[in-house]
Amino acid sequence: MDTRGGSEGTTLRLPPPPDALGHRRRPSGEAPPLPHELGRTGRIWLLLALYLAIAITIAMSYGPLRRAAEAFDTALLRFFAELRTPWLTDLALVVNALASRWTIRILRWVTIGILVAFRRWRHLVVFLGAVVSVEIIAYQLSLAIARPRSFDVRIITDWNGFAMPSRPVVSIAITMIAIAYTLIVPGRSRYLAKWAIAGVLGLLWLTRMYLGVDQPSSLLFGAVLGVALGVTAFRWFAPNDVFPVSYRRGKAAHLDVGGRRGEAIVRAVRDQLGLEVAQVKPVGLEGSGGSTPLRLRVRGEDGTEHSVFAKLYARSHVRADRWYKAGRTILYGALEDEAPFHGVRRFVEYEDYTLRLLEDYDLPTPEPYGIVEITPEREYLIVMEFFDGAVELGDAEIDEQVVDEGLRLVRNLWDAGLAHRDVKPANLMVQDGHLRLIDVFFVQVRPSPWRQAVDLANMMLVLALRSDAPTVYRRALAYFTEDEIAEAFAATRGVASPTQLRTSLKRDGRDLLGEFRALAPARPPIRIQRWSLRRIVLTIGVAIAAFFAVGMVISNWTVFA
Amino acid sequence: MRARGVLVLLVVLAALQPACATSTSAILSCRLNEQSLILTAQAVPSAALVPCVAELPAGWSYAGTDIRSGRARFWLDSDRGGLHAVEVELTRSCDTSKAVEVRPAPDESGARVYAEPISLEPALWANRYVVFSGGCTTYRYRFVPDAPSTLSLEAEEALGFFPRSALVQDVQDRFGLTLCGAGAPPCEG
User: Could you tell me if A83 lies within 8 Å of chain B, comparing CB atoms?
Assistant: First the structure.
C-alpha cells in the first residue's frame, strides 16, 4: 500500500554493507535521535509543583511555620479587603465567574466536541484522563491538607470545601492547559495562548484574594498544580511530535515528519544505515493506516539522488494494531488466529523478517535495507527499496502478463505456505510492465486455508478491476483448480476484503464478485463467524470494560457537568 | 507491557473510587483542632453552635461530609438503619412550620427543638430541628424498613454540638487570627 512510484526511471539497489558510509554506534548514555522527554519547562513546572507540595506539607504540619504562613497570607488578604468598594466588588464577582462551574463546564464540553469532530481520539483520552485525574488529586489533597478558609477577612463569594489547593483555580488551569495542548496548533498561537492562560490565572489570583475566598498560597498551589500536571500529561502522553494538533484532513495514524522528528530521521538514517538523506516526504498516506509511509531522497557518494522507501512505526500503531486484532477476533473468532505484538520494536522486526522471507522465495517485494531507531521502544523506521517509476495497479494499464503475474504470485504464496492478507489495489504496483507486491506487514506463515482462499479472491477482484472477470477467471485456471477458485469466492464476503478494495468495487459499478461466483462451480458460502473460547472471553471482557468505563464517566460526571 | 497496562487500569480505578463518594476523611468530631469544625463554622458564620459527632455507637459509621458556604452537611450509615440513615445539616435558618416543638436534650439547653414525623411504618422517617442563635441544625432520619425506631435515640446520643466561641478562641490561640462571624471581633471588609 505504501511504496509509490516516482519519475526517476531507475531502480535503486542498495546492498547495505555494514561498513558503508561510516555507520556510527550511539555510545552508552547518549540521547537517542528523538528523545522522549517532558522538555525544560515541563520539568520546571513539575519540580515547582513538587517543591510546593513538600513546602506546604511541612508548613501545615509544623505549628510555628503554619502560624507564620497564615499570618503572611492573612496580611495580603487584609490589604486587598481594605481596597473593597461596591463597584470593584461587582467587577471582582464578574471576573470570578471565569472559575465558575458553568465556565469550566462549557469550556470542557466545547473541547470534547471539537476533539470528537476532528477525531483526535488520543487527545480526547488524554484530555479526559488529565482532567479527571487532576480533579481527584486536587480533591484528595484538599482533604489531606484540610486548610480552612481565610481568617480575619469577610468572605464575599461562594465556596465549597477546604481551601488548599484552590480547586476552582486547579479546574480552570487544567482546562485551559488542556485546550492549549489539544486545540491550539504549536507555534506562535500556542505561545500566545500560554501567556493568555498566565493572564487569566493572574487575574483570578488577584480577584479571589480580593473576595477573601482563597489564601494567596492556596491560589498559587492550585495554579501550579493544574498547569504542572496538565503540561506533564500532554507532553508525556500526547507529545506533539507524535500526536500533532492539526486541522487538516487525514488519518490520525500518520505522524508529523517535520521539525524535530524530521531532523531525527535524517540523523538516525545517516548514523545507523550510512545513508545521507536529503529529503523526507510522506507518500501514499491515503492508502495507509497502520504506519506513516515516507519517501527518503538519498544522496549517493557521487552526488546523485535516489529514493528509498521507509515506514515510520510508533507505539500508537502497536496499540491500534492490538485493537484491530481484538476487534477482528470478536468479529470473526477463530478464523483469525492472530497474536498482538508486544511493542513497536517487535513490529518492525516482524516486517523486516517478512521482507527477507519473501525475498528468499524470490517474490517481487521490496529489498529490505534495515531498521533505524528513532526513539527506543517508541519509534522505529524500517527502510526498504523504493520501486522507482512504479504506478499503483488501480491506476495502471495492465495486460495478460500482469494478470498472470498476479495469479502466479498468489500460487507462489500458497506453495510457500504464506498469506499476504492485505491484497488490494494500493498494495500492488506495476513497474516496467511487471507486478510488484508491497506492504508485507500482514504476511502470515502457515495461515488458515480460509485466509489463503481470501488472498486469491481478492487478487482476482483487483485484477478484474483493471480488466474483466472472464479474462481473469480464464487465466486463473492455469494456476488453480476450479474448486480452489470456487472456495476462494465462497470464503470472500464483505469485510474479508480490505476496505480500499471494497470501495473500488463499489465505485467500479460492475458486480465482479457475482460474475466470478457465476463462473466458478457452485459452492455454499464459507461461514466467517466462528466461536471460540478466546473469542467469548474477549467479547465478555470488552463488554465488562465498556461497562466500567461508562460507569466511571457517570461516577465522575460532576467533573464535567 | 500488558501487566503494566492492567496495573495502570487498577490504579486509575482505585483512584476514581473516592470521587464517587464525598469525603470520608473530613470527620466532624467534637474536639478542638478539628479543621472540619472550623470550616463548618465558616460555612454558617452566624451560628453559635456547630453540630458534630461526639462518639459513634456500635453499628454506626461516618459516611460523608459536604461543607460549602451557607451550609454544612454530614451523614451516617447504620448496619440496621441502612446507608445514609441520618443526615445532619447546619444552615442559618430552617422551616419548622410543619413540626411540633419538643423538649430539648440536656446538651441542647438554650435551643428550641422541633420534631416532624414523616412516616412511622414500614420505616421511621422524620426530621428534627434544633434552632439556636444564628443557626439551625436539621436531623433527617431515613431508616430502612423494619429498622428499630430506637436507632434515632442512638443517633441523638452520637451527635452533639460544639460552641463556636471555643473555635474562635482556638483560632486566636493557634494563629493569632480571627475566625470571622458570631462571637468574634469584626472582620475586615
Answer: no
